[in-house]
């Protein structure tokens, strides 16, 4: 009888220990699953947000520096409905510019919400922007160390505010032989210049093609200067652009 009682005690104790081990194992597996699910959800959320930001950056048809884009077009945060929270965005690197022969890249750090303030999970994406192309993106390693200083927007290229008056003044004293050089000297480098002389009329067009910014002024044989009006649709890519043809042979 004493032996049976001892066996029963041993059996009960063993079952209790086995139950405890199983409970611990289940708890560990549950936490691991929850952690994996959380990581997976966060990863899907950042990928979704990167895709969304790429769409927002969209099709590029204006000349801009990468720093200008980083400063003005990257939001501080984006809502992540799947996480019931927001994801913080920080530009961490930028280079180049969007132009006819260059591309811009902007690296953005996506910081995930975390219950532990000491730990901030993050993922980084590089956005590549090219003229007359849609923005693309890919995953990159996040840089180590402190974040760089916030980007500072540089003003986009534009004609001087007095471009029309400046052009009219040049035309007042220009001759057919000096017209092109005189107009070029009156405007900053990078300004598009086109001049022509047609039946005694001096024609000058100055503009910033990527900004659809254009002024056309003529001087008639009697010395008067006049602005030339035109439909700005002709400044769009693939159209005539800022040319003297807006006066000499306007599109129909």
Automatic annotation (TrEMBL):
Keywords on record: Membrane, Transmembrane, Transmembrane helix
Superkingdom of origin organism: Bacteria
Ranges where the record places region Disordered: 35-57
Transmembrane annotation, as ranges: 7-29
Protein name, as recorded: Uncharacterized protein
